[in-house]
Design a protein that fits this description.
Layout (H helix, E strand, L loop, with lengths): L1 E4 L6 H15 L5 E4 L10 H15 L4 E3 L3 H11 L4 H5 L12 H8 L4 H15 L1 H8 L4 E3 L3 E4 L15 H4 L2 H6 L11 E8 H5 L8 E2 L4 E5 L2 H4 L5 E4 L4 E5 L5 E3 L10
Parallel strand pairs: 1-2, 2-3, 5-6, 6-8
Antiparallel strand pairs: 1-9, 4-5, 7-8, 9-10, 10-11
Helix pairs in contact: 1-2
């Protein structure tokens, strides 16, 4: 089976519970776990989430645990290495960056005289103390493809001639794979399994807490963990060619199609 999760957003305890639930499956031969990005930001344990994902890949190997990059990892990378400031709009008061600092470093940060000095200090500490983790993060894949599926954080370019669809992963820019908006729905030549956009938004139902399936080719598994208190997990049975939602109690519930609003 293939399991997939997305948009962890610093929810370490929720992620750790899911990892322990999936560990028995990962010890079996052909099963895989695909993580679709956005491990950091919004929650208060971002560093621990990224480190847990890293450790899991080290434990099982990068063909058993496939780790993809989301737009929040891209922003973090650009902040650290390219002096881009998109990250700072999300990282108010170093809420996420601070999880990469020690308590002593955080105390030093608080007495620095101005914002620019704090930014420089945070960057220096993170780049010095987490070299291996950052090098790994920067090399994360943007998509993972099977014979019938494309796993990606946000999406691929589907506005292409039908005869060129098989080359969509080559022709799609990186920023589209990590940040595509609005999300696509409808038929495509492979199934698209993505996160990035809340499933409740696609369902046009704030109370919706499941994986969104458009009835044709698209599955979206961003469960807005920070609001819902749950990380959704998709399970694909390759023998049956069937998609399920793995519930927290261990049961498998077949994913049902939801009506697609014309505005999506």
């Amino acid at each position: 089976m293939i399991f997939a999760m997305s948009d962890i957003h610093g929810q370490y305890e929720l992620l750790a519970r899911r990892v322990e639930q999936l560990r028995p499956f990962l010890t079996e031969g052909g099963n895989q776990l695909i993580l679709l990005g956005d491990y950091i930001d919004r929650g208060n344990r971002s560093y621990e989430c990224l480190k847990l994902v890293y450790d899991l890949e080290q434990e099982f190997g990068n063909e058993k645990v496939i780790v993809l990059k989301g737009n929040h990892e891209v922003w973090f990378e650009e902040f650290l290495f390219r002096n881009e400031d998109i990250w700072l709009a999300e990282d108010r008061d170093f809420f996420t960056s601070g999880t990469f600092l020690s308590k002593e470093q955080f105390r030093e940060l608080e007495v620095l005289p101005d914002r620019e000095a704090r930014i420089a200090f945070v960057k220096a500490c993170i780049k010095r103390d987490h070299k291996e983790l950052l090098a790994w993060m920067r090399k994360l894949r943007l998509f993972y493809e099977t014979d019938t599926q494309i796993f990606v954080h946000a999406g691929v370019d589907e506005e292409i001639p039908e005869e060129e669809a098989a080359w969509c992963t080559i022709g799609t820019p990186d920023y589209v794979m990590t940040g595509k908006y609005p999300p696509s729905v409808g038929p495509f030549y492979k199934d698209i399994i993505a996160g990035h956009v809340a499933a409740s938004y696609l369902a046009r139902d704030k109370g919706f807490r499941g994986i969104f399936f458009d009835g044709q080719s698209h599955y979206y598994i961003d469960g807005s963990a920070i609001k819902s208190g749950s990380i959704l997990c998709l399970a694909y049975d390759g023998d049956k060619r069937a998609y399920y939602q793995l519930e927290e109690d261990g049961s498998f519930r077949e994913i049902q199609a939801r009506a697609v609003n014309a505005q999506v």
